[in-house]
Design a protein that fits this description.
alpha+beta; 44% helix; 4 strands; single chain; globular; 4-stranded antiparallel beta sheet
């Protein structure tokens, strides 16, 4: 299975969590303590409500939700 297909399959099967790791926006696979991706964007530049949601962690269950949240937080 190609790597991209495995990633998409993982998203559908397991879901993801987006939050903050060392002050930066990060993405975790469910139940994994290590982020799979840490983005070069500081959470402190976001509005306080977004920072609060990210500190709690935002569960992502679909590819569309993942794309929307990443676009919102990283653009």
């Amino acid at each position: 299975m190609r790597k991209r297909n495995r990633i998409l399959y993982s998203i559908i099967l397991f879901g993801f969590l987006i939050g903050i790791h060392n002050g930066q926006i990060a993405l975790w696979r469910d139940n994994d303590p290590t982020p799979i991706k840490v983005f070069p964007y500081r959470a402190e530049i976001l509005p306080e409500t977004d920072q609060f949601a990210l500190r709690k962690g935002i569960r992502i269950n679909s590819m569309a939700d993942l794309q929307r949240l990443l676009q919102d937080y990283l653009s």
